[in-house]
Design brief:
The strands form three sheets. This protein has a seven-stranded mixed sheet with strand order 3-6-9-12-14-15-16. Strands 1-4-7-10-13 form a five-stranded parallel sheet. It has a four-stranded parallel sheet with strand order 2-5-8-11, with no helix packed on it. The protein is of the alpha/beta class.
Length: 241
């Protein structure tokens, strides 16, 4: 009996020791994640004047923290609770991140309003998303239906990336772009639908200039003015005859 009690006590101590080690490791990882989140804000937003300001007043940071909780619940198949956490975060931050999405370290969601990240989206380390960005799907397909962002990707305000393809490392998606296909690493995509205009720092030869885009209304008015001038000229010639 004494031997059994001693064996049982040893087993309890071993389990408790493993539990303590696991808990301390989880706390350490969580602290590292928080440090990287705040570091990302300080490095990429000159408006952030202190670590405390970044931790207290940046909704993108709060949304990422809430997602870590909801994603942990989602992985353990507590789907309803995970959605409750994500929806609460959406209510308070205006940022909707599905619990199933996979986020890398150092993600910075600047401003954050109306950002949507779908269930099968994957975001690499050190990415930056601005307000109104959507990482969405294109229909009701199952499986991988949301985009994968490589490391160091920047997505401008209002950009939409729709589909289960990959955006390469260090790619840049211009504000307002609608991306419907893969973007190579170190490339810049602009326009609707998006086109690659720069890769590895070099301009793509067949590119569309999205800075000096002609005004379609002004072009139409100019054509109408030319037609009116032609009609007046014809009427003037008829009167002379």
């Amino acid at each position: 009996m004494i031997k059994f009690e001693a064996t049982f006590a040893d087993a309890v101590r071993r389990d408790a020791s493993r539990a303590m080690l696991h808990a301390s490791e989880c706390v350490r990882r969580a602290a590292d994640d928080v440090r990287l989140d705040i570091k990302a804000v300080r490095e990429r937003d000159p408006a952030a004047k202190s670590d405390l300001e970044a931790a207290l007043f940046y909704p993108g940071v709060h949304a990422v923290w809430a997602h870590r909780v909801s994603h942990a619940l989602y992985r353990r198949k507590h789907f309803l609770t995970a959605r409750a956490v994500s929806q609460a975060a959406r209510f308070f931050t205006g940022i909707e991140i599905h619990p199933g999405a996979k986020l890398g370290h150092g993600l910075f969601i600047d401003h954050g309003g109306a950002v949507v990240i779908g269930e099968t989206a994957e975001i690499g380390d050190d990415c930056t998303l601005y307000q109104c960005v959507t990482l969405g799907g294109t229909g009701k397909d199952r499986g991988k239906r949301h985009p994968t962002l490589g490391r160091g990707v920047m997505v401008g305000a209002g950009a939409k990336i729709l589909g289960g393809f990959k955006i390469g490392d260090n790619a840049k998606i211009a504000a307002g772009a609608v991306v419907l296909g893969p973007v190579p690493a170190n490339s810049t995509a602009v326009g609707i639908p998006a086109r690659i205009v720069k890769t590895d720092g070099r301009r793509v030869a067949d590119r569309l200039d999205h800075v000096h885009v002609p005004d379609p209304v002004a072009s139409k008015i100019k054509r109408l003015e030319e037609e009116i001038a032609e009609l007046r000229s014809e009427l003037g010639e008829e009167k002379e005859v």
